[in-house]
């Protein structure tokens, strides 16, 4: 059953988890054969920017081994056959329309969202 | 006609009213004769943590018994009891990795450990799924 993951809350616990929890969940479901799409909205459109990186956290003598790489994680999801969409107006108001974005990204104007939702029997908002 | 409904929740206990709202929807679903699946993800896996304890409240001027502080694990026990009384099924799955990283493996009876695949399977077999992510 096709399910659209609508992701709005961005960088939620990405330091502790070393990933985005919903992108990770999507990877796990896809690996189990789930048919998903991922729609990035609000601040989560930043995940479509390919050239982003978070430095590994250091606290005292402790250093993180693997910082989250959201751009790569979303690209990997796309490579597994998950269509990735981003809301055009949310990209525009963050000045990201001209940024280097995920190659497989489909930019969707707000007015076309209902048509996108119709393609998916289930829509989950996160 | 009985429908199975699946809920995915993420908020940790004592942090957000979304959790209470979801519990109320689950209760209404059980009362209406539906089966309920719950997938607790991230902080929500602490909702059925067995060691939650009530406390007194000096600001309220009440001791522990009088304060009768709400505990999510007790609410979940009440939902399990309601499901049993109505002859319905409540299946609560805690994300196992989320449990491990928080050290909250000691859950109340009825809660089982699972993975996102359990969530996907529950959803596929359900009439509908409602998600409530942490914001």
Uncertain stretches of 5 or more adjacent residues of chain A: none
Distance between the termini of chain B: 34 Å
**Quaternary organisation:** heterodimer
Query: What is the spatial order of strands in the main beta sheet of chain B?
Result: 4-3-2-1-5
Helix content of chain B: 25-40%
Largest sheet of chain B: 5 strands, parallel
> What would you give as the CATH superfamily of chain A?
DsrEFH-like
Strand content of chain B: 15-25%
- Topology as H/E string of chain B? EHEHHEHEHE
CA-CA gap between termini of chain A: 18 Å
- Please count the helical segments of chain A: 5
CATH architecture tag of chain B: 3-Layer(aba) Sandwich
What does the model show?
The complex is a heterodimer of chains A (126) and B (135). In chain A, the strands form 2 sheets. Chain A has a 5-stranded parallel β-sheet. In chain A, helix 4 links the parallel strand 5 and strand 6. Chain A has helices at 14-17, 21-31, 70-79, 88-93, 113-118; strands spanning 3-7, 36-40, 58-59, 62-63, 84-87, 106-108, 122-125. Chain A has 126 residues and is of the alpha/beta class. Chain B is of the alpha/beta class and 135 residues long. Chain B has one domain (4-132): DsrEFH-like (Hypothetical Protein Ychn, Chain: A), CATH 3.40.1260.10. Chain B is 36% helix and 20% strand. In chain B, helix 1 packs parallel to helix 3 (72-85). Chain B is globular. Chain B starts with a strand and ends with a strand. At the A-B interface, helix 2 and strand 7 of A face helix 5 and strand 5 of B.
Outline of the structure:
Chain A is α/β, with parallel strands linked by helices. Chain A contains 5 helices and 7 strands, in the order E-H-H-E-E-E-H-E-H-E-H-E. Chain A has one domain: DsrEFH-like (Hypothetical Protein Ychn, Chain: A).
């Amino acid at each position: 059953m096709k399910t659209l993951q609508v992701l709005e809350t961005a960088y939620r616990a990405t330091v502790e988890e070393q990933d985005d929890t919903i992108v990770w969940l999507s990877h796990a479901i896809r690996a189990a054969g789930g048919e998903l799409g991922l729609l990035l909205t609000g601040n989560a459109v930043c995940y479509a920017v390919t050239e982003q990186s978070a430095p590994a956290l250091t606290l005292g003598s402790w250093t993180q081994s693997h910082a989250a790489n959201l751009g790569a994680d979303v690209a990997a999801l796309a490579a597994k056959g998950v269509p990735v969409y981003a809301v055009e107006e949310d990209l525009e108001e963050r000045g990201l329309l001209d940024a280097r974005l995920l190659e497989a990204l489909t930019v969707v104007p707000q007015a076309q969202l209902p048509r996108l939702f119709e393609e998916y029997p289930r829509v989950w908002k996160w | 006609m009985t429908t199975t409904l699946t809920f995915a929740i993420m908020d940790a206990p004592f942090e957000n009213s979304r959790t209470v709202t979801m519990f109320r929807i689950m209760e209404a679903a059980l009362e209406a004769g539906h089966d309920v699946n719950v997938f607790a993800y991230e902080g929500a896996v602490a909702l059925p943590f067995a060691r939650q304890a009530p406390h007194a409240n000096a600001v309220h001027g009440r001791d522990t018994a009088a304060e009768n502080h709400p505990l999510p694990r007790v609410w979940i026990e009440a939902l399990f009891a309601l499901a049993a009384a109505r002859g319905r099924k409540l299946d609560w799955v805690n994300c196992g990795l989320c449990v491990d990283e928080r050290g909250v493996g000691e859950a109340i009876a009825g809660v089982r450990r699972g993975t996102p695949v359990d969530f996907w399977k529950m959803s596929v077999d359900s009439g509908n799924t409602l998600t409530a992510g942490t914001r």
